[in-house]
């Protein structure tokens, strides 16, 4: 299957008009984090326990975001629209099912471990428990989480300025489509960037929607 040129679509949306953040963002922002992207971001060290692996994600979020909702994919509901992406990443190879608990040491390769959906779902549940114990909110999708990430971001922006952190153009498009111009502010930032919130790769979704609406009239 030919891979979609999502970067081109994102560029087109950006170039349609001024979409950069221009307002001063308050310190009390709420962040909606793409959990799938988050899981891929951090390395896992062999010999550490699964509980310690989960804790490194908790610490990572604590260092960066005061208030966060982590939205996680699901792998128990059958085929997903992103199965071809997962197949491409794993080259069609599924890793062995691993029996593990919080205190079990991690002895595999992260990439191999995550190619098995049962492993991945069990780890997601374990990570969610660790996040909730640290007072972070989690949301679980039945399958691919893109729609739930966007929905959560839009809903949270009704009462709080909200930044969605992810790396999928699908989420960006969904945010532009569903956001309301009367919200407290909705923004999108790639988790691949370490730049400040005033950098060019931070989208003001309301501005983007207004520009798209004007161009379509």
TrEMBL record:
This is Uncharacterized protein. It comes from Mytilus coruscus (Sea mussel).
